[in-house]
Amino acid sequence: MIAQTNSFTIATRGKGTYDITEQVREFVATSGVRDGIVTVFVQHTSASLVIFENADPTARADLHSFFERLVPEDGKGYTHTAEGPDDMTSHLRMVLTRTSEVIPVSNGELCLGTWQGIYLFEHRRQPYTRSIVLNVLGD
Amino acid sequence: MIAQTNSFTIATRGKGTYDITEQVREFVATSGVRDGIVTVFVQHTSASLVIFENADPTARADLHSFFERLVPEDGKGYTHTAEGPDDMTSHLRMVLTRTSEVIPVSNGELCLGTWQGIYLFEHRRQPYTRSIVLNVLGD
Amino acid sequence: MIAQTNSFTIATRGKGTYDITEQVREFVATSGVRDGIVTVFVQHTSASLVIFENADPTARADLHSFFERLVPEDGKGYTHTAEGPDDMTSHLRMVLTRTSEVIPVSNGELCLGTWQGIYLFEHRRQPYTRSIVLNVLGD
Description:
Three copies of one chain form a homotrimer. The first copy, chain A, is α+β, with helices and mostly antiparallel strands. In chain A, 24% of the residues lie in helices and 42% in strands. Chain A has a single domain, classed as YjbQ-like (Jelly Rolls, Sandwich).
């Protein structure tokens, strides 16, 4: 049984989704795990994770604009605003998506469907260095 | 330590929730794992997973109608519409629920609460064959 | 390889977020696991889990009021109302957040970011005893 933990960073350039599938795939491949699970964990409360449609960029554009409507940056109803209008909304958009994703591994491969990619969802306007922890457990 | 992966399919007949608790329970029972975790993973971006109230069907009916209101199929604000008005909304409803659920296993049993069932949440109108991967890890 | 399961209860005093980070940290510390993952699982369908900003209480207050707006207790659109206006809304607020959270463990420590706390999110008005299951897997 193998238990391995590692981490990497992503430099974000404003709000949007950043594909991290390859980093996860490579981590699993080098671990030697054939059957098990990989956990992806983002160490922030203003960025999150989603597994999302990876083929048509318009789907991701619609995702971004949907969250602008669902959690509007109009300042209404927020008191935690010290860091600007995208401060509290970032925490809320994070809470409606994921801090961790767990993906089964079989025959050394991620069990993702054809159209599934793993994305970091950045909710802040400014550039950030985001830290992601990976753990793989299995045989 | 046991690490086992398997998969099964569900034939959906339109939007709604489909109980998959028994398939997960049976997988864990036959694995022989006494203490550990089971990961349930759906390999699609227009269907998702929820752990939900399993006693009163009106709760699930209200769940379905709430998502119709929260992510309306009115075509407004979506550009990714090649497959119809339930295309982009399916991705958004998926992203607001789960791609994976992880459930502890103790004494060979799923640690679900009395009123918890595991459901596939289908967001498309047409019938689909949905693929779900299961992994169990433990002693 | 270690696989350990345990559970504890939290007495809630109405709607809001309750910090359970210390209970998870202590469970991992006493397990002896150095590298692996810890799964936190809430056995209810009207309470949920979030990993959230742990420094400024106004962020949590804004979280609470956002969910009042997103899933209003105005009785509109709900048929599952036997237990009052906070019955169906509790299931919906649960479904939009998490039943389980999985956190990597490295060098015997939870891999939480500086500002991340683990919270039980209670959605009912009345006091409840909430049961949370913990599982740790690793070396």
